[in-house]
Design goal:
The protein has about 170 residues and is an alpha+beta fold. Helices cover about 60% and strands about 15% of the residues. The chain folds into 2 domains: about 10-95, no CATH class; about 100-170, Double Stranded RNA Binding Domain (2-Layer Sandwich). It contains 9 helices and 3 strands, in the order ααααααααβββα. The protein is flat.
């Protein structure tokens, strides 16, 4: 808030969501090598499951949240706050007033045009531990974007980004 004193309450809310999102938490966990530590510390009988779960962004995000909670209880607020600021430095730097995640930006743009937005899961590929998803962003009933990701959410975000780009291209052309 001190950094963006002129930001609206809505912008600050979106910025907070971006900073504490699953993707930001998973990135912080990967940067801190928490997935590898989870596998290394797993009991012998659970190591296969740990290897299967470690690459999942949802698990990585939960690891980050668990470490933050444990640090808060063990080290206190001040020490934990400094560590969180360092771990989430990239997410904090990327959070600027007016910037929305692609799905939110697409929803807002479509609403301005009086159009609805929906997502269709076009494909799921690969084994359960390494699944890949393909989604289509439907705007006003028309497929405007397609995206691939390691989760349905990630594929929808990619599809929304492509659809948003096409809407902006239409405005320019």
């Amino acid at each position: 808030m001190r950094r963006h004193q002129h930001a609206t309450a809505g912008d600050l809310t979106w910025m907070r969501q971006a900073i504490v999102s699953r993707d930001a938490c998973a990135a912080a966990a990967r940067d801190a090598a928490l997935p590898a530590a989870m596998v290394a510390c797993a009991p012998h009988g659970a190591r296969t499951d740990a290897r299967r779960l470690a690459p999942k962004p949802s698990i990585q995000a939960e690891l980050a949240e668990a470490v933050i909670g444990a640090a808060w209880l063990d080290l206190g607020r001040d020490a934990t706050a400094q560590g969180v600021l360092e771990a989430f430095h990239a997410a904090i730097a990327d959070a600027v007033p007016g910037r929305r995640d692609p799905k939110s930006a697409l929803q807002e743009e479509a609403a301005r045009r009086g159009l609805g937005v929906a997502y269709d899961l076009a494909a799921q590929e690969g084994p359960a531990h390494a699944r890949s998803f393909v989604s289509r962003a439907m705007v006003g009933g028309q497929a405007l974007g397609e995206g691939r990701g390691s989760s349905k959410q990630a594929s929808e975000v990619a599809a929304a980004g492509e659809a948003l780009g096409r809407l902006h291209d239409e405005d320019r052309g």
